[in-house]
Structure formats: C-alpha cells, structure tokens
Design a protein that fits this description.
The structure is a single chain. The chain has 312 residues and is an alpha/beta fold. The chain contains 12 helices and 8 strands. It has a single domain, classed as Rossmann fold (3-Layer(aba) Sandwich), CATH 3.40.50.1820. A hairpin with a 5-residue loop joins strand 1 and strand 2. Helix 2 packs across helix 12 and helix 3 packs across helix 4.
C-alpha cells in the first residue's frame, strides 16, 4: 500500500511539473503542415513550414500577435506552383521567445539571415500588416528580394509623436497579458468584415497561450512590435522601393487607418497613398473584407498573387 501511494504521489508530481513547464509552443494546436526549425547565428530558433516546389520562393511573414498558421489557406493553394515557406517571427508561435527586440530592422535582419541560412533564391516576401512593414524594411535594407506582396500593410499610415505615445501606452505587456477570453475574441473580430468559423482555432490557441511559462515573453514581443512599427515607419521611403509590388487591402479594414486617432481617413486613402509612392506597384481593393485579408478572402488573395506573379 505504501509503495502504491508513493507511486501515485510521484505520478502526481510529474504531471504537475509537466504542466508547470509547458511553454507557449506546447499549448498550440499542431500546425497544418510539418514544422521545421532553423538555428540562426545569434542562437535564435525559427519555426517554419515549407511546402511545394517552383522557381520562385514565397516567404510568408505574419502580422502582429499572430503566427504562421495565418497563411495555411494560402500555402495549400500556392504550393502547387511555388515553393512556399512561412515562419514564426522571434517571439511568436514555436520560435524562440528569449531574444528580445521588436524593431523592424531586427526582424529584417532575421529574414535576411533565414534566407541566407536556407540559401533561398528568387525570394518574394508576402507580408501581412506588421509582416508587410517588416517585408518592406527588408527590401529596403537588402537587395536579395525579387518582389513584394503586401496585405493590409502597416507602416504607411503616419502618426504624430503624441499619437505614437498614446498607442504605446495602450500596448504595454501587462495590458496584453490581462486580456480576458471575451476580449481576445473581440480583438480577433476587429480583423474581419465577417469572422470565418474556421478561425476559431486561433482564438483557442491565444487563450491557451496564457498558461505558458514564456507567455510574458510573447506579450513583450507584441508590445515591442507596436513600438517598432511606430518608431521605424517606412512611409518616407516608399519611393525607394524599386521592385514589383502588389498592395492588397480589404475595403472594410477596421484597423487601418486607426479609427480612434484618424476618424476621417479611409482605407482607400491609405491604399492610394501607398500605390502612388511605390513606383512599380499594383493595388487591389477587396470588397466585404477586413484587415485579415489572406485569411478572410483567401481565394481572391491567392488568385491575385497568381495573376501578379504570372505577369512578371
């Protein structure tokens, strides 16, 4: 009997220890595609998926507070014609979270190092929101990017110093960590004209992440990402982008422009501004579509990518 009780206690302690040691990556739903890892020179581990083959490589960069499953609807279709790679940026998903810098230049360096590590050729960056700003920053900093596909790109809407400070005060790590399940679901809803039913797994993942031992590092990464976008805008350098660029916005984007700070501005105005300044660009506006363009209107987004790349 004594031996039996000792065994039960040992098992209980083991289970408790395992639950206490769970990291964010352990709490996420398995990715649709097989997960690989790349160890970069500064000890950063990058999680990525890689599907398909082709002469061109589409490298997908997710937005703020999301992760590489954001692209699963796109990879499933585009992998038939292209080599498709999506990464978790440092601080997100299954990648390292103990780095920490959320600057656009830092993320651009990570993208460049990943490209060099994988020896990728004919790279087209496909970025969403913050990921689009990272993509533009990368293209401006390095000369190994063949084209850009920008979905609801951040970095084009401009903010005064007062506005910037206000936004930074809103996106503090402790505020992000304190979000309730209802707030998390509401925040996701802001990304869509009509939130798809198949997005539920992302909301569940985000709620489950709060139990991770490294959840605070994730919250810090999100906060610093906001700081990075505000501190390193690309607006004044858009005319320097000299590679083919596809800009795609949802006509019903509720996040760009900021509806609190820029009440009279429209998404169309932001989109037209980007299109006018990026020399070799095409602009697509999608009806009944919010900020999360690649997921909400994946079929249209995928088709526009095929059309854009087939003309190059």
């Amino acid at each position: 009997m004594k031996k039996y009780l000792i065994t039960l206690i040992t098992l209980f302690n083991t289970v408790t220890l395992m639950s206490q040691d769970q990291k964010v990556a352990d709490l996420l739903k398995p990715y649709t595609f097989e997960t690989h890892y790349a160890a970069l020179n500064d000890s950063i581990k990058i999680a990525y998926v890689e599907e398909g083959t082709g002469d061109k490589t589409l490298l997908f960069i997710h937005g703020l507070a999301t992760y590489l499953p954001s692209w699963q609807k796109n990879i499933e279709v585009l992998k038939k014609d292209y080599r498709c790679i999506a990464i978790d940026l440092p601080g997100y998903g299954r990648s390292s979270k103990d780095y920490i810098s959320g600057s656009m230049g830092y993320y651009a360096d990570i993208i460049h190092e990943f490209i060099e590590h994988k020896k990728l050729k004919n790279v087209i960056l496909v970025g969403h929101s913050m990921g689009a700003q990272v993509s533009m920053t990368t293209a401006l900093k390095y000369n190994n990017i063949e084209a850009l596909i920008l979905a609801a790109p951040a970095g084009i809407e401009t903010f005064s110093e007062t506005e910037s400070q206000w936004m930074k005060s809103i996106f503090k790590p402790e505020s992000i960590a304190a979000a309730t399940p209802n707030q998390i679901e509401f925040n996701y809803g802001l990304n869509f004209f009509k939130m798809p039913d198949d997005l539920r797994f992302m909301i569940t993942d985000r709620i489950n992440m709060t139990k991770g031992t490294d959840f605070s590092a994730y919250c810090k990464a999100v906060s610093l990402g906001v700081f990075g976008m505000l501190d390193e805008p690309v607006y004044n350098r858009l005319s320097e982008l000299n590679i083919p660029t596809l800009v795609v916005y949802g006509k019903n984007d509720a996040l760009i422009p900021n509806k609190i700070l820029h009440k009279t501005a429209t998404t169309q105005q932001v989109a037209d501004d980007a299109h006018a300044q990026i020399k070799n660009s095409e602009l697509v506006m999608i009806d009944e579509c919010g900020h999360f363009v690649p997921f909400e209107k994946a079929d249209i987004f995928n088709q526009k990518i095929f059309e854009f790349l087939s003309s190059k």
